[in-house]
Structure formats: C-alpha cells, structure tokens
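Rotation project, supervised by the postdoc (A.L.). Task for the rotation student: set up a whole-complex structure prediction and record inputs and outputs verbatim in this book. Inputs entered:
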Amino acid sequence: MTDTPQVLFKNRRPGETAFLAEYQRSGGYEGLRKAVKMTPAEVRETVKESGLRGRGGAGFPTGLKWTFFPADQLGEKYLVCNGDEMEPGTYKDRELLLADPHQLIEGMLVAAYALQTPVAYVFIRYAYERCAQNLERAIAEARQAGFLGRDILGSGFACEIFVHRSAGRYICGEETALLNALEGLRANPRSKPPFPAVRGLFGKPTTVNNVETLANVQHIIAHGADWFRGLARTESGAGTKLYGLSGHLNQTPCLEAPIGITLRELIQEHGGGVWQGRKMKACLPGGASTPFMTAGQLDVPMDFDTIEKAGSRFGTGGVTVFDETTCMVEATLNLNNFFARESCGWCTPCRDGLPFVSWLLRQIETGKATMDDLQTLRDQLRNITGTSFCALAQGAVGPIESLLRLFGDEVEDHIKRGRCPLKS
Amino acid sequence: MVNLTIDGKQVTVSKAATIYEAALEAGIHIPVLCYAKKLLPYGACRVCLVEVEQMKGRLIPSCTTPVTQGMVVTTTSAEINKVRKTVLEFLLVNHVVECPVCDKGGECDLQDLTFEHEVYPNRFTGEKFALPTDEVNPLIERNMNRCVLCGKCARVCDEIVAFGSYSFINRGFESKIATAFDRGLNCEFCGQCVSMCPVGAILPRPFKFKARPWQLKEVDSVCGYCGNGCTVTLGVLKDKVETIRFNDKTGVNDGNLCIRGRFGYSYVNSEDRLTKPLVRKDGKLVQTDWKEALDTVVSGFAKARAEKGVGIVTGARLTNEELFLLKNLAKAMGTGNLDHSGGESYKGVTEGLFETLGVTASTATFPQVEECDTILSIRSDFYETHPVFGMVVNQAVKRHDAHLIVIADKRGKFGKLPHAETLLAKPGLEVNILNAMAQSLLADGLAITDGVEGVVELQAALADYTPELVAAQTGVPAAAIRAAAQQLAKAKKSAILLAYGLPYTAHSRELGIAAANLAILTGIPGREGSGLYLCGEKANSQGAIDLQIVPGKEALDSQSMFQAAAAGTLSALYIVGEDPLTSYPDRKKIETALDKVPFLVVQDIFLSPTAQQADVVLPAASFAEKDGTFTNAERRLQRVRQGIPLPGEAKTDYAIFELLAGRFGKQVSFTGPEAVFSQIAASTPGYGGIEYGAIGPQGVVWGGDLLAVKRRKVVAVAGGKPVETPYQLITGSSLYHNGTVSTRATGPLAVIPSPFVELGREDASTLQVKEGDLLTLRANGVEIKLAAKIDTRMPKGVLFAPYHFSSAGLNRIFTGQAAVPVEVSK
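Outputs recorded:
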C-alpha cells in the first residue's frame, strides 16, 4: 500500500487485532528491554533528543514536558494516557488500539519507567469499548509475560496500568478536565498553575500524554533518536504520524505516513482525490479546532511549524476535506455548534460566547445578518480569544477566524444577497 | 514577600497571594463575581481579567493567578473594560432581568457591575432562561434564571459545609446549578448558599419581599444559640429582626452560619412572647403589672428565706453582666444555692479540666483548628452540636489533609471525609476508649510524661484498659484504638474536641478528665496550634463557668435543689432562662419538685411548660433585645448588641436582677453593662485588664490564643459499663435545634417540626417500622411514643432521640444515663 516505513501500523491488518505473540514477532517489547537497562534520565534524554512532539493536538515537545515532571522525587505520581479522542475528524487512536494495543502498553511502560511512575491510567473514550477490551487483554498478557507488574524484566521497577472508561465529553480531552473526570469529579478544567506535573491526579505529580505520543516512545528507545528524526521528511520534524482522512474524498483511510508529507500527497494519493470529480475548496488539516486551509496550500508539508506558518495548526492529523459545493459558513456553524455544546459551562466567554457566535453564524447563513452583525462576530472572536479558562474556546475560534480571513467574500455575499449563495 | 507593581503602585504582599488579593490590599478595585475570600480560587466568571506585562498576549484572571516577583499589572484599560463589559453582556443576554421584583436588588453584584460598566443597552439579544424555580421548602428559594454560574453555592456547600447539595449539571449553554436528580432542595438548610450567592438566584424565603437592603438597620451581635459564638448581623426593619445579614468581617465565623443562626432568629418576633408579668391567682396565671409581680416575688422569697431557703437555677444564655448581677442578687438574698445548666453537664470543665490542668476552659482558639494535622472528636463529629466550628474541622480535613478521628456511638457527616474515621463504640463507653488510648501510649512509650504528675498511678489504674480489653467491651477494634493513639502522639498540631450540654449529663467529669489525660500525654496543652476544646451548648456556657455560677460551699447544686424541693426541704425556686421540665433529665423528679415547692418564680421569654407551673412569671429579653457580652467556647468575649426594643413590658434580665437586688437591700447602681463589666474584669480570673469598650469586631480572647495551664496531672477515671439490652436509647442535640427555644423558631421547625426517634435500617426492618411510624419506647415502667426516622447512621440496637421537644416527653425515660435500656415496639 505504501513504501513509507510503518512503525505504529506495522501489525495492522484489516479486521484483526495483533496481540502479544504477533507484537513480539515484530520486535515488540525490545524497546522496554532496552529502556530498563538504561537509567530513567537516559530514557528521558533520548526522547527529548528524538524531537517527538505531542500527537494529541497541541504538539508540545514530549521530552520537554517530561523535564517538568519530578521523576526522581519519591512518592506517589502518575502517568495518564489521554485516550479521550473526541476531536471531530480524528480517529487515529482508535485505529491504533484496534490494530495493535501493545503499542500503547509498551510505550506507557517505557514512559512510566522514564518518569518513575508506579501507576499509570489509560483514560479512554466511552465509545471505544473494543479498544478498552483490547487494552485490558494486552495488559493481562503483558503481566503474564513479566512486562508489567512488580519487578519488570528484573529491573526492580514496578508499574500497574489501569484502563478507565470515560463518561465521554469533548472537554475530557483537556488534560486537567481529564484529571478531574478520572478522580470522579465533574470534567471542568483546573486552573493552571499549578500544572499537572506539580499537582495533578489526586493532587500528585502527573504527566498526561496522548495515545499516539506514548506509542512512539518505545520505538525511539529501540532504534534511537536519530532514526526517529530521520523518519520525518522535514528538517525540524521527527517520526511518522497517523493521519485520518475524512470528508469529500473518494477514500477516507487512516494511515501512517511521515511527518512532512504534503497535503496534496495525502489527498491525491491516499484519499484518491476529491469525490465526484469536484475541486477542493478547503480542509481542516488537524481536526475541528484547526483553522481552514485552502486548495492553494496543498504543498505545505504536514508538520507543526510549517502548517503554523501557513496559518493553521497541525493538530491531530485528522484531515477533513470540503469540496467546492460546500458553504463554508454552514460548515463553520456546524463546527461551532459542536464546540458550544461541548463547552463545560464553566467560564462565561466560552459558555455564553460560543452559543452567541453560533447565533451570529446562523443569522449569516440564513441571510438575516447585517454588516453590523459581521462586525460583532469579529469583535466576539477577539473577546473570546485569550479570555477563556482553557483552550476549548480558543480552538473553537480557529475555524471562524480562518473563515473570515479566507472566505470573507463568501460571508459578505450571504449578507448582501440575504441568503446562502451556494444554495439555490 | 513579593514585590510587584499594580497600576503603577508598588505593592508588597505574601507570595501566597493572588493578583486580586494584592490589589485589594493596595486598595485597587478589581471587579469580581465568582471570587469569595473563604473559597478556593475558581476563575470562572472572567470579570477580573487584568493585563500582566510578563504574560502579554492574553488577559490573566487576577483571582486565580499568584503574584510573582516583579510582576507589572494593569487592572484597567480600554481592552480590559471591553472584555469585562462583554462578559456582563453575555451574562445578561439570558439572565432574567427582573430587578424590581428581585430581593437582591440593591446589593446584587451583577446589578452593580452592570451599572459600573454601563452595560445598557445590551448589544446582544437572546432567549431568556425559563427554568422552573424551586420553592418547595420554606427557607431557601432558588431561581436559576437569575444564576450567573459562579459556582459559589456549590463550592461553599462542599468546601465549607461538607454537604455537597449542589453541582453543575449539563454542558455548555445548558449548564446549570442543580441538586441531585435536579429535584427540590433537600439539605441541612444552613443557608450558606444564600449568603454566598452574588445575585438573586438563591434567596432566603422568610425575607421575601420584606425590604430593600438600604431600608434595614444592621446590628452586629452574637448568635443566642450555641457556644460557638458566631457573629450574627441582625437586619432590623421597623423594630423587628427580619433577616440575618451576611457579614464575614466580624467575629470568628467568617460569615459562616448554621440553620439556627441564619434562620432561627424568628422566635424573637413570636406572638407568643411574654409581654407582661404573670402572677397566680386562684390557681390561674393572670397578667399583672411589675409592681405587683415584684412585690409577690420579694415577699415570697423573703418568706422562703426564713423557712427552708431559696434555690436559683439559671440558663447560660444570659450575658456575663446579667450573670454577675444574678450572683450578687443571690448573695443579697443570702443563698448559696445557685447553679446553671442542670449542674452536671459542665463538670468536665469545672472539675475535669481543673483537676488535670488547673484551668476551666478550652486551651486554644477555633481558628487554630484549621491548621491541625490531627483532630480527635469525642462523642460526635462535633458538627451536630457546634456546626460552624464543625465547618472549621471540615476545612482542616479537606484543605490541610488533617486526620479526623471520631469516637462516637453514631455516625456523623464527617465520617465520610477523606482521612476521617469513626471509632463506632457502644453508647456510654467513650471514656473506656480514651483510657485505652492513654494506656497504649504509656505502654508503647509514646506518651509525653516529663513534668506530668500522676503517671505511675494512671499507668497502674489503666491495667484494665488495654486496647484488647476495651475492644471487647466497646466493639472498636484494638488496632484502631492503637492507631488513633499513635496518630495523636505523632501529630505536630492537634486538637481534642468534646461538646457538653444538657443532654450529656453522664460521665461528664470522667470524660473531661480522660480527654485531658490524652491531651497531656500527647503534649497538647501549651503547644502552639494545639488545643483541648470543651465546648458548651449555650451562647454563654463558658461565661457562666468563668463567673462561677456554681453552688457555694455546702450549698445545693441544681440536681440537689430539685431533689430538695421534691422532698419538701426547699421553700422557693427561682428559675431563670431554663425549662427544666422539658430539658432536664428525669421529668418525674422535676414535676414533683415544681409541684411541691411552695413558691416558684420563672423568668423567661416564653410561657414554657416550667413557667406554666410558676407562681410568678417575669417576662425577660431575648439576645436581640439586650446589650452585654457573651464568652464563647474558645474564651472569646464578644459584644451582644440590642437590635430591637423589648416586647410589651418585658425587661432584660439585667433590669430585673437590678430591681430585685434593690428590694433585697443591696442597691445596685450600675450605669449599664459597661460598668458591670469593669466589675467583672476586676473580679474574674482571666478577665483582668479587658475593657468593655475595647472588645472589637473580633472580640477579645481572655487568657490569649494559647491558655497557660496551671498543672499537668493525669488522673485515673473509671469507664462506663455497656448496657446489655437489645435496644438502647441515646439522646443529644440535633443539628437543627439547640436547647428548647429553637422549637419556637420557624426556621428550624421548617426542617424538623416535631420530635422523632432515629434508628438504623436493620432495626427498622427487624421491628417492621416504616419512616414516620409511631414507635413505643418503654423504660422504667414509663412509655413514650415517637415518630420513627430511619437512616444509615445508627448502629444496630441504638436509637437516638433529640431532647429539644417538650411534647416528646423524652426525659420521662431519660434520667441522666449515657444510654437508656429500652423496649421498643411498634
């Protein structure tokens, strides 16, 4: 199917799940074997050198995040895997866990060793029941094989992994809201500082990483930081990435490809081009909270820095494509309705501001808006940006900001004509 | 300390402060909605956003962001104001703006901010909320259409009250504050949520449509109920107390109140108040004037003096000044038969603490308990008897990870807190457990014995109280007793709490001593931040002890006075501010005494069952109608202030004592409470040097925050014997009531309107009883009937009935025991 090296998806077969035997045949748990012979600090250093950046959307350098964590301090501390994948257009973690759950388990064990956390949790979305069951089986297998539990591979290091099924809310993807949810509280974000690395789960130091991020860790240890950097096609990037295609394409696969692959390659080769012979109008490059990119930006390499330069964000690598017949106002309204619904309801700008933005967009879409309304919408974006409690509202504003920037004429057309110009 | 610049002003504050607190200290106003001093930082409303030079690019919530060295903060700018205004616009889009009919109008934070930021007209429009209001209960009304989702109600209920009645439900725009399953409010009704709500979403129903805030006269006084001594600010309209106003600046309670303090004031306005003196003529009490009443009293007492003598029994809700005058009156009348609060219940302090520590008061102050790492609470989790002090215990556990150990015969609310454990013992065996803890400390060499007298004797006497032996008696595992002792021994700051009062007559001296023994052996007395707290049931229980309202040498105490009256060896009784028929143990004895005593004078604010037996009834004043001082359970002297005039011809106890003393030839010529207080200060140990006028908003703690003890002597005391019957009845205070007067207050009555007996589910199922069924309790050949209340906190075989209600007749079977063996049937 592809000639790019497969790291996370190497055991992926349609309709099948690879468990311990198959995982080990493909070199599984070599990373852990190697890690426990290193010091935790060496493991952390290697991950830092590898340039691995968080795969959950924000792209924060994993190694750097780990340096904030008091790994050498004694006492309770936790590693938490964020498996609450609920960004619209993003489904890569599900595919990984359906295909090869040990990828995550080994990654978590290596990370837990690096961070010296005796307890780790997988916080998984309620809808991913199959994934949760796969993980539970993988944990049982790993325990039996001596990779998990007390005295892992004779190293003296002990770690337990627990699977926690989330009640399911978009906000649970925000790491501090996730910690609240994991403690059985309402999933509201916490105020930072203190950051989770200082006071996280149950008030103890905690590191939260995405599923895909953790699944990369053991490969970095097994093959080295340079190998990992070399996987990417860009100078600054590192590793491969799971991309999930969706939207108006002929095919919508989830695939593993290098960091730095172009949008064009993803859409043309892997997505088989825009459906029904139409042209592409826009895409969300990394999930619903990333600003739109246009057909003119297809040659931008898919990496954090390059996409940011192009005015959007790499996000989760979930690419959603819109064809030329799409009304961008309507598409944005649909996205914003999601964010307005999924606001935790805590802070005013997000709770009350996003529904108001939805109302404004609906006015525009239905042709009832005035130019004043458009001005109010611009104003609201500024008011919401930088005033809300967490990043949810910030993310929600991304597509709207790009709608006004990239499709301003289309928006004004709605107002001038008093109806949606794309609908007859 | 940290230096920072706010609006160009140099500010130096503690490094724990937030930007908001720093600004407040510097006198710079930052608007807030969801911030509250006593709650943890929240940061939800986004009204308090400011700019910080070092964190450019976004606005910073000042209420959650800690200060850092060199920070440069700007609190107002065009951009900030715009954002604040937008937040208000957002809140007002859906907020039902009905200020003209909203009771919060005039003191509503949203109203004030709307005015300050000139949010009119609103640029935005949207649908108004149309949620149903909660008007099910008579005390707290909730109208969530006015809510701004600041979460203060949910936070105070969890962080301070530890009840957790509220939570946010739903997401996004649909978010709202709700109770479990979004039903009507069903809680303790302390009204803490009412006091915290910045808008008109949660309001006190008794005050509905009564007044605008500016029409009210506010009078800072002290709650007349329990020994906690909370500041209550009376909201007075047209000479009536119409509400209790929120006040977190005065007193020891941080604005926290329980249902009694917040909603229990209504008895002062009651139609049933005594307004004229009554004398018995032809067997009937008839209204009369003061002259005739006083003449009758004086001649009656004079006659009695000449015969077998007079006895005086008082309650502990009189001010210090009144108690002082009463003491002088007793002297003028030539009687030493003077006692308060039933006599027995306070002996843990007057005898227990005196024998062991040489003092007769709690050794430290309430605020110190919040910082304790271990708290031992004896007989209950303390919340039932002293709720607001209980809230301090809760904060110690929740915010400072304190270990709470409760030795009790029933479970309480705090047993569910993290780090809390209840050593659930059979009734009446608390002393045994305390003894076992002391034994284990001594045996394991963990006890502090340097400079402690009586250690050898105690050790010998405790041979029968090893944790194992006590475990067999009490049902509390030996390991748990040992662990509790060790926890207390290793604590750096610890507190031992014991509430006392009328229903807790059994083993009071022994409990005081056993608690003091443990305190001494774990180094509590004199140690910074640690304390032994014996807390009285009534507003001035400690004052009555300080002023020595106790029997003189070879004189009769309260119990003996009733005994003597019943036996015909006492000629007159003068009962002030007490209803012994209802609240003292052994009603038969009291009945006989009141029946047999030739002359009975009762001075009260209501025609209580006791007053109905009197020859003369003198109408007195409630706490809201007098000036003076109360001493609370941590020795804090606080000013009681008159808020409303006396009803009818009623007089203060002060005035009555003054008149009577004059008639007994001891002219008292004080010009008022202040003059009396200077006499008290001159003659009362510990009160020396305190001036009435200098008792400020926070009161004055006599003896200082840490009371110096006179000695450290451990004394052996015998434990109780378990009651072996299948069912045993215990009594005590219920959370909603205090003494008997709360049964005349509409607030507490709205929640607990009538007497009840509480039993566990297991017993209920054995007895085939349903909630509300009448249970017959039989003991000593007497039978009483009480409505059953079924829950999970009573252990098997143990029933609990509060003592406040006269109609219950509980003291027909309760005669002062720790546990009454009862037969129970449906």
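Student's summary: The radius of gyration of chain A is 22 Å.
Supervisor addendum: Chain A touches chain B at residues 169, 171, 186, 188, 191, 193, 340-349, 351-356, 359, 376, 380, 383, 385-389 (CB under 8 Å).
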